[in-house]
């Protein structure tokens, strides 16, 4: 059984990934990066689409076939988290703007989400985990001992994401990043299956004016308090 789960949800650029990594490192918990898992499958779908020269329209039959041929593994190597897709390290490849612009559409597919939830729960068995995404506290781990919902001003989130993309892939236009976040916010919040929303018992953390250190410390304190009273 899973021992202790910290579920962190929120929109893109709210700081949940960096915060989750930091909290997991400080508490020596396993960092379960669900967003990276969705990105990995999105990358697989795009690679298949390119190789087969099929249309841009998502084909559910193709998705279902690809899911049966997909293995996603999360590993920690030299204190860094790596994502493997069918044995290949795709940690860098899944962060491209192309994957970012397509991941919400792939993530909205019910068959993909059901497959991912099963994978995520299996990964968490027997571990203390910090898990972040968009439906962690509502769908994946509804019984998580700690649920956090992170928010931040849209333009602040866009600035953060632009900086992240610039460090990884060179310059990116702010307006493009802003539009991508607006699209993802709307798409993730209004999709029928497992939409982005705050769990009823989640603690809201607005990170607009917080530094990364302050975000990590805030969540760490909440978790330590809950652990103390277990």
At a glance:
The chain is 53% helix and 18% strand. It is an alpha/beta fold.
Notable traits:
single chain; 230 residues; alpha/beta; Rossmann fold; 5-stranded parallel β-sheet; 9 helices; 53% helix; globular
Q: Any chance you could write out the topology, listing elements then pairs?
A:
Blueprint: E1 4-10, H1 16-27, E2 30-33, H2 34-52, H3 60-68, E3 72-77, E4 80-85, E5 88-89, H4 97-107, H5 110-124, E6 128-133, H6 136-140, E7 146-151, H7 154-169, H8 174-190, E8 203-206, H9 212-228
Parallel strand pairs: 1-6, 1-7, 2-6, 7-8
Antiparallel strand pairs: 3-4, 4-5
Helix pairs in contact: 1-9, 2-4, 4-8, 7-8
User: Total number of β-strand segments?
Assistant: 8
According to CATH, the fold-level topology is Rossmann fold
Average pLDDT works out at 90
Discrete helix count: 9
- Counting helices, strands and paired strands, the structural category is alpha/beta
**What is the H/E string?**
EHEHHEEEHHEHEHHEH
* Poorly predicted tracts of residues: none
CATH superfamily: P-loop containing nucleotide triphosphate hydrolases
Reported for the largest beta sheet, the result is: 5 strands, parallel
Can you describe this structure?
Strands 2-6-1-7-8 form a five-stranded parallel sheet, with helices on both faces. Strands 3-4-5 form a three-stranded antiparallel sheet, with helices on one face. The protein has helices at residues 16-27, 34-52, 60-68, 97-107, 110-124, 136-140, 154-169, 174-190, 212-228, and strands spanning 4-10, 30-33, 72-77, 80-85, 88-89, 128-133, 146-151, 203-206. A hairpin with a 2-residue loop joins strand 3 and strand 4 (80-85). It has one domain (4-223): 3-Layer(aba) Sandwich (Rossmann fold). The mean pLDDT is 90. Helices cover 53% and strands 18% of the residues. The radius of gyration is 17 Å and the shape is globular. It has 230 residues and is of the alpha/beta class. It contains nine helices and eight strands. Helix 1 packs across helix 9 (212-228), helix 2 (34-52) crosses helix 4 and helix 4 (97-107) packs parallel to helix 8.
């Amino acid at each position: 059984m899973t021992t202790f789960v910290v579920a962190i949800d929120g929109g893109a650029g709210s700081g949940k990934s960096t915060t989750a990594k930091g909290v997991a490192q400080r508490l020596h918990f396993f960092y379960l990066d669900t967003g990276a898992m969705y990105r990995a499958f999105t990358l697989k779908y795009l690679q298949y689409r390119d190789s087969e020269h099929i249309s841009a329209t998502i084909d559910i039959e193709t998705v279902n076939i690809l899911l049966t041929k997909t293995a996603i593994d999360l590993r920690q190597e030299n204190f860094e988290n790596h994502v493997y897709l069918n044995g290949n390290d795709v940690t860098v490849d899944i962060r491209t703007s192309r994957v970012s612009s397509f991941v919400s559409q792939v993530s909205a597919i019910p068959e993909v989400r059901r497959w991912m939830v099963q994978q995520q729960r299996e990964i968490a068995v027997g571990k203390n985990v910090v898990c972040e995404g968009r439906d962690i506290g509502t769908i994946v781990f509804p019984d998580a001992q700690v649920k956090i919902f992170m928010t931040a001003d849209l333009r602040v989130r866009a600035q953060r994401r632009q900086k992240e993309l610039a460090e990884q892939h060179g310059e990116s236009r702010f307006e493009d990043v802003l539009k991508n976040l607006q699209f993802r916010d709307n798409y993730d919040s209004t999709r029928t299956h497992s939409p982005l929303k705050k769990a009823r018992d989640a603690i809201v953390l607005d990170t607009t004016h917080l530094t990364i250190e302050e975000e990590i410390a805030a969540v760490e304190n909440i978790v330590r308090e809950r652990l103390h009273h277990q």
